[in-house]
Q: What sequence folds into this?
């Protein structure tokens, strides 16, 4: 049974003028709720068009039927129009019905309130029903939230009665949901791939800086020809890959197989020197830099391979610039962490050149 609604004279902000025009809202249970016409019209353009629509018989009383929802939901709807408030109890019991009413009669404030409340109360059991309502009522925030919940908890949602009903009665909407899940998974895979690629570019950028450091300043066991190696040098703490890169340079200098004979380690080091020459814009002491600059892209087998190499160079340049900006910002807010000494065993550099793309 419907509870007795507050009459217009009992509501807030109601004028005491006896000449006020009233209309009757008739619920599906036959209940009549008297409402001020001007308040109803000011709250909704739909009600305004209904109230002030010309009538053939002026003596007949104006009534507005609202069917298809519980009587108490209509009472709560009218109460919100008068006060601009809705209790949590009403929202919990009639949130779905109030969202439908706010959409049909264009009450945006109530629609926003219902959307937020339904998002907070989403569960695996009700998500399919709320999703269908959000689609019909053009509530994009609620629709997206429901879709994300269905996507992340699909195995559980698939067992609910709501999903089984949807499969039977609305296969097109089921297909729309499955397509959204598929697209979400594709975006996640692309995002993971992008993060892996960015990590590789940052590591290659660090390898470029480390290579210039070794060939220009010299380090523990490797340095330029015009510098005498110093004994008892402290471990280098500038780059975590420094020790591994020095070992690779030593191997490259002493290996008898080299690239043409199939030494994979030498080939990777060759690619690293070539990448440096593509980025370097000055005369430097890095081995083979000048040679690669003079040869240009002669060693490229085809145009597609050349385009891939140019793209790699651009990505590494951007990664180096980004890394430099992030490092300077980090120094302003906290102390820079000390990397592992070059003397400690690590294979970070081998990982970098192993992933180098020709």
A:
């Amino acid at each position: 049974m419907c509870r007795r609604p507050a009459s217009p004279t009992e509501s807030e902000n109601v004028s005491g003028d006896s000449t006020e025009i009233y209309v009757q809202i008739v619920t599906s249970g036959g209940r009549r709720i008297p409402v001020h016409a001007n308040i109803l019209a000011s709250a909704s353009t739909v009600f305004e068009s209904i109230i002030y629509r010309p009538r053939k018989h002026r003596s007949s009383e104006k009534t507005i039927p609202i069917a298809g929802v519980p009587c108490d939901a209509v009472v709560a709807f009218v109460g919100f129009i008068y006060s601009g408030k809705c209790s949590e109890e009403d929202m919990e019991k009639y949130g779905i019905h109030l969202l439908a009413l706010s959409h049909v009669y264009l009450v945006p404030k109530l629609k926003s309130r219902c959307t937020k409340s339904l998002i907070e109360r989403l569960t695996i059991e009700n998500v399919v029903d709320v999703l269908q309502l959000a689609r019909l009522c053009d509530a994009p925030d609620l629709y997206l939230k429901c879709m994300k919940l269905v996507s992340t908890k699909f195995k559980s949602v698939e067992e609910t009665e709501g999903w089984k009903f949807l499969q039977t009665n609305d296969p097109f909407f089921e297909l729309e949901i499955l397509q959204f899940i598929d697209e979400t998974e594709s975006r996640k895979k692309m995002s993971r791939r992008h993060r892996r690629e960015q990590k590789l570019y940052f590591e290659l950028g660090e390898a470029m800086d480390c290579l210039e450091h070794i060939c220009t300043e010299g380090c523990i066991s490797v340095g330029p020809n015009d510098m005498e190696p110093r004994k008892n040098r402290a471990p280098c703490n500038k780059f975590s890959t420094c020790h591994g890169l020095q070992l690779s340079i030593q191997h490259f200098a002493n290996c008898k197989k080299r690239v043409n004979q199939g030494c994979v380690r030498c080939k990777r080091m060759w690619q690293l020197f070539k990448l440096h020459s593509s980025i370097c814009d000055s005369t430097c002491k890095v081995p083979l830099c000048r040679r690669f600059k003079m040869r240009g892209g002669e060693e490229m087998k085809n145009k597609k391979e050349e385009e891939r190499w140019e793209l790699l160079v651009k990505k590494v340049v951007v990664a180096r610039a980004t890394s430099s900006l992030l490092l300077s910002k980090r120094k302003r807010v906290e102390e820079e962490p000390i990397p592992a000494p070059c003397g400690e065993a690590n294979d970070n550099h081998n990982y970098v050149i192993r992933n180098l793309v020709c």
In short: The beta strands are 22-27, 32-36, 63-66. The two ends are 77 Å apart (CA to CA).
